[in-house]
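During the second year of the project, the team shifted from modelling isolated chains to modelling whole assemblies. The rationale, set out in the original proposal, was that interfaces cannot be judged from single-chain predictions alone. As a representative example for this report, we include one of the complexes processed in the last quarter. Its constituent sequences, exactly as entered into the pipeline, are reproduced here:
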Amino acid sequence: SGKKSDEPKSKLLKLAFNQSENHPQYKALKEFGEALEKETNGEYTLEISPNALLGDQRAATELVQNGVIQMAVVANPVVENFNKDFAVIGLPYIYDNLEHQKEVFISGALDDLFGSVKGSGFEVLGAFTAGSRNIYTNKPVEKPADLSGYKIRVMQSDTMKKMVDYMGGVGTPMAQSEVYTAVQQGVLEGGENNEVTYVDLKHYEIAPYFSYTNHLMVPDLIIMNNSTYDEMSDENKVILKNLIKETINKEFIAWNENVEAAKKIAKENGATFVDVSIKPFQERVKPLQQSVIDSSENSKILYDAIRDLSK
Amino acid sequence: MDLAVQTGMIMFTSLPILLLIGVPISISIGFSSALSMLMVLPLDGAMVTSAQRLFIGTNSFSLLAIPFFILAGNIMNRGGIAIRLINCSKLIGRRLPGSLAQSNIVANMLFGAISGSGVAAAAAVGGTIAPLQEAEGYKPEFSSAVNIASAPTGMLIPPSNTLIVYSTVAGSVSISALFIAGYIPGILWGLGVMVIAAIMAKKENYISTEKTTLAQNIRTILDAIPSLLLIVIVIGGILKGVFTATEGSAIAVVYCLMLSLIYKEIKLKDLPKILMCSAEMTSIVIFMIGVSSMMSWVMAFTNIPQKISILLLGITDNRIIILLIMNLLMLIIGTFMDPTPAVLIFTPIFLPIAENFGMNPIQFGIMIVFNLCIGTITPPVGPILFTGCKVGGISIERVFKRLLPFYVVTTLILLLVTFFPALSIALPKMFGLIK
Amino acid sequence: MNKIKLILDKLIQLFCISLMVLMTVLVSWQVFTRYIFNKPSAMTEQLSQYLFVWLVLYGAAYVFGQRDHMKIVFVKEKLPFKFEIMADIIQEILITIFTLGIMVYGGQLSTMKQMGQLDASLQIPIGVVYSAIPISGIFIIFYALCNIRELYFIKYKKSKLGEDKLWT
Ligand code: NA
Ligand code: NA
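Output from the structure prediction step:
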């Protein structure tokens, strides 16, 4: 095909992304952009702005709300601030594994939830996986008692802090940029994250035991400005919907590949991956889970729907 | 014409005009950024985004260290800590020609080391030591030049507010690592100034007559120990993991305040004034940082840094020449711009280029701050130069000639810092703060 | 107008001084709870950060009132007195336009949008924190008008200027 992007009708979609070009989500988004341009005959082009250049996730969400940019990928807690029910899809131990999570994302079970934030100025088009989060520190963590007195870095959120507290440790909110030195110097004993980030930030150097507590699988959400979406022709909306579904599938595959690559690097650098029986941790965080489920009727329905998709 | 080029042209023509007619630096940056934002966004989008940047640019836990170090510096200034440091440094420098000037240099390094501000050092130390120098027959242009030339070391030797600002624009660069990295370049700067001062003093025959007894010396040292302990507490606390760099700054405030109250040089009723003065200084600096984040946003949105780096790399791909060009540009910028806005504006443009050549962002941070430190003592805009002249009671013209050899020696050290990465990154490596 | 300015000055001073004290206490307390009691607090870091933003915005407004923001004056000072005053008045007008557009208009829009969003650790609407942008903006405009009035009616009419600071 010819160079359609030069035609005046082409609409540029700017997408804010807070990770680097090497992230599996970036790769999936890049393919998405190419496919979108091709299938809409150049009506839409996508420009990804990586490394949080346009601001952190909360700022990016505001930019999408205001139509300054058209799309962003943001973590679930950011959208949780607009509708509390989103907390359910980021609950500890709600998904059994990546397959279960993929099933939930593709099944359409979340469509009502995603539609609920329309009034805030953006659409949620779909969800990516960010893998499972696990605790890493200077020793294997096999039971809650192992975490006793251990300060574990969490994101700056009260729920995250409570979760680590329930798991037996001391949840300590801190900006990610401070964590490496904080752990190294003993302000913290460790952190919790997925394998990819663990390796990207070289945290294996300071906290070499990565224990599969599997406590969280927080989705990342693809959001789009309301008017940008509404202005799309019905035909293009269908194209978009199908492409997003395809992209989510691809992202799960890319994620798995990256996890394997990351683990290999970490192991070569002396990290140990520890398999853990999650039962005792699951029991410990039940009260936290329950409080979210009980918070609204919608939450309960959503929780049951997600659990029903488990095999 | 390319949208990025248009936006860039609007920004880079309106900014100098506004600056030169004397519009506050913050508003000049904000106004020209908003104008260029209007090129690429509708009115509402541009206004909302600008307001958001203003908020986000100031909303950072690392920046919180700045009011605390400013406050600590002001308390030290008033609380008798500066004079104790001067007395102590007189012991170190007294065997060299121009002993009082040498003491001034050491005291500036010590004071700057704990206050994080070169201007504060020039005012506190220079103001206290100038009358002593006059009494010993030093020419005021000599003593003022030495005070001015040595005060910027406080911005390199940790803690340093300018390095904190750099770390927030550079992304995930550890403040602790930057702090440790500043030691060697800062001390080299100090030593360079000491050598020039010694040569000048010898020429003019400033030989010390003062004699002190051992008992006096021991007393002076004992007296200064609580003040010097602050360095141990803040840097030690950061390295030992008791607190982060930001938290360390608040601890510094508490410690200085306790010490000054014990010395009885600050009374509780003096505090509101000290607090308000620190609040004002903080607001001036941080408001500028908030507004500058509008500028970096527009540049990112329109890909201007990439365009500039392509342009720069189009001239040559020789690493040495590119680094020399960057240094030259920053030296020029430093002559008329303050370190904080300069760091905010030029880090996003130059850092990607430097990283492209394999330069560690820690080394780049030290290099850019070193550059701008030289700028603080050059006319037409030089806050340390002005402060030093003010406390020395002397005009800029008279000091300027005496400063020339100092410009030469600091520029030579800058070249060392640029081309020998080890000077900046060996220490953080040793402490395991970077790989 | 002068009387209101003096009252506003005093109020902002009181506010900023209290914030400085509060921030120092909060951050020291944070070290204390984590290091001594091993019980880090989820809200001190976020709260002190927000108080800091307020300090900066209201403090900056106060400094606009004092005409004490950093500026480059070596060119302006070379101008004849009449033009210097004119440049000063232009500055204040530019400050007013900037503040009106970005801080008051943009800030107000942004604040309204953020009222529906809760901060994760403090559980207050982020809009409450944002509100400092338009409010301090209104103060800045008030100060700018005071300054224009003083520049024009007092300095210019009297046509004799005292010593201006070289580095302001
Ligand atoms: Na310092
Ligand atoms: Na200068």
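Residues B 334-335, 375, 378, 381-382 surround sodium ion (ligand 2) (CB under 6 Å). Helices of chain C lie at 2-35, 44-66, 81-114, 126-130, 132-158.
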